[in-house]
Amino acid sequence: MTLHTPLIEPVRLAPPETPWRVLARKFARRRTGMVAAAFLLLLVLLALAAPVIAPQNPYDLGQVWIMDNELPPLSTDLAGERRFLLGTDGAGRDMASAILYGLRISLGIGMASALAALMVGIVVGLTAAYHGGRIDALLMRIVDVQLSLPTILVALVLLAVLGQGVDKTLMALVLVQWATFARNVRGAAMVERNKDYIEAAMGQGLPAWRIMLRHVLPNCFAPLIVTTTNQMASAITLEATMSFLGIGLPQTEPSLGLLISNGFDYILSHQYWISVFPGVALVLLVVSISVVGDQLRVVLNPKLDA
Amino acid sequence: MPLLDVRNLVTEFHTGTGVVRALDRVSFSLERGRVLGIVGESGSGKSVTAFSLMNLLDAPGRVAAGEIVFDGEDLRAASEKRWRALRGDRMAMVFQDPMMSLNPVLRIGDQLAETVAIHHKLGKAAIHERVLGALRRVGIAAPLERMRAYPHELSGGMRQRVAIANAIINGPDLIIADEPTTALDVTIQAQILYEMKQLVRNSGTALVWITHDIGVVKDLADDLCVMYAGSVIEYGPVAEVIASPRHPYTRGLIDSLPNGGARGQRLYAIPGSTPPLLALPAGCAFSPRCSRAAARCDSRPPPWQEAGREFRCFYPLERP
Amino acid sequence: MVEMLARRALQSVVVVLVMSVLAFVGINLVGDPVYLLVPPDAPQAEIERATRQLGLDLPVHQQYGRFLANAVQGDLGDSFVFNRPAVALILERMPATLELAVMALLLSAAIGIPFGMWAGMHPGSRVQKVAMGLSILGVSVPVFWLGLILIMLFSVALGWLPSGGRGPTTSLLGVQVSFLGWDGIQFMLLPALTLALHNIALVMRITEASTREVAGQEYVRFARAKGVGPLRLIWRHIAPNVMIPVVTVLGLEFAHLIAFSLVTETIFAWPGMGKLIIDSLLQLDRPVVVAYLMVVLLLYVLINFVVDVLYLILDPRLRARSA
Q1: What is this structure's pTM?
Q2: C-alpha dihedral over C162, C163, C168, C172, to 10 degrees?
Q3: B105 touching chain C per CB within 8 A
Q4: What is the ipTM of this complex?
Q5: In chain B, what residues touch C240 (CB-CB under 8 Å)?
């Protein structure tokens, strides 16, 4: 019998992947998520290209003829020329064009307000997490109070107070959403803040803002992505609801919500297309954002999915 | 005829990344009233053995091949209904962490009563008496008050006693204990070990005691079964296995026990670590860590029987 | 435990006070309310008289003091439009809203919980995937659009159910209710379903997640190890643990239902509090808006408090921790 030294094979390690790449790779494997993301991208491109690809600018009075009104989908105008793919509304505007423009506005407001609320939330959340103690307790108390109020009421009151207009709607939406972001950021930041590498950075004398922004924040991004997508979806829905109720955006810049509202009265007379098509567009937009957000959540937290 | 006879048990997990053989032709047997100790590191397959014996594997795990014969009955052919009749009544299990295994929203008296009620048609008073009796037998003082308690109101040692009471309450023929003292303080551990020993001796129940700590089991068991990476690599009467182990791994386990006599000396640890079950070496699973390994160890050693002992090694340690 | 409840009660009072200040500031101080009663071109004397009458010439903190004192007695001013006490208006409309909210809650529980539990216990099954997919849809579809579709389908196209309004009411314990007969219920179905959909999806998701977590717990396997059969397993071991978070969500969502009913009421012309406040906002009838906010907020706080108590009852571990 001979003594045989056990062999230990050197293991070849793959080059380290950034968390972003890992996320992208895992997400790319999920079929539902990729389909939704592709669809969402399509919608975004359509919205961006609206002024270029829309057959008609529905808010340019020179292009709209009242005689064309209330035409069902796939009809032609009186001169026998253009075809209205999705019909026209009560004032003769082409629904397809109106939807493209409405998509632009809905998406724009949703994204802008969510991102702005994210900024505010980051500032508040990081401040609370860094200082801890009293400041944290105070800030989180304010967040708790705001979150315990129904969003629709807060939005309603804000808009009633601030009045109509795009900027005021944006402000109201941001005020409604910041608290969720603040709470999430603070939660994730708290976890990071207590880790050793932050203590080390503090020991090196790095200024607070630098530590928080360069070290803590990047590690909080994972849950924040999910929150941001969800909030975007709810911002779009909330704005649509506000517009539907007649508060928020002015008539000159109709989002999908306002289009639906305008078409509401026509439902009873079987002219469904004025309301339903903008509605479908809205639902597709919100659903695709939600699905992407949900798939991201599953990828980031595999325990949640079977 | 042995109470429990396990032959060539194979358990597989069909995961997304491949089929994992958690148990590879595991065999052992147990007579009535005897204690079998199953020892192994994490990942050796000891808990899987316990769940396989009770048919409690969670998907994607399943028993793929082999025989489990309990009191003459072929359990692998049994229906789920038959299994339910056996579990808790003729064969019972004690889990590792009693905080997780007791239902947090039910009182312990109710949980114990349930174990009786689903197997026997008895009146409330009779069940009540049985519960009290079981609590007393495991050494719980003031059982009447304790019955109304919720699991979180008891200490760790108490909770495990309740779990043991749950196992013995119907007077089973076999108890399978999966690391029952691992989650407890050392002093409580010793107590429970002692009390289990008494219980088993007094009632003639067979016991399978699963642990990673060979020191725990050497005073309790009659026979010892050592597992590594899903196979039984040594099996025999406990005193003999400990005094003269044949397999190098068993020797390593025994050597790593802290020894009261050698003060100031470094504790021995087997070099390396258990291989992941998805990437087992082709031959003997222990060979990468074995100082005695040679070319022959690239193929799997078959079980070798010698004088009432069984081991899997081409180069076993010498008999003294 | 009492101490914990008292602390929660105190917190609730603080929230109510904060909201009252915000409501007071936002409604009474922004803009000049006097011009609602009196046209801008009225003679100065009239304007002054109206100002005094409304107490608008007093310093702010005194106005708030008056506001608060009145509020505690249940007087939140008279509606500018109807010339009746605002609180009375709200209370008149409350049963209609509560009817809808309760029915929506029952629907969410009746549909959401069984489906959610089934999906949670069969992870990876086709039904689970479909259920989860539908639930995303349910959470994303805007309430008002759903109402539209339902009206189109069931009222206009099929003609089965009425498209708006409330059915005939009967008196129950002095309150006008409409659920005591098919005549009344048929008017309630579409709005309640619309209101409930978002909730059904939410309840389904939470129940599924909770069930999945509970089903994987050791105590479930422990119960199986002692021979407990599948039915009993669900009934005595899984369900009580699943229901803890689900019940709390249902309770909190009830408050949400009451708030969100205003959209549904607008679509279906349901004469509840919600419709009233939309109209009042558009007509700048401030006392009614304030009264609505205070009432809804009080309901909110009350419901949150009840949910806290419920949580303590359901989970014995919390009782010990707070004792």
Answers
A1: 0.75
A2: 110
A3: yes
A4: 0.77
A5: 105-106
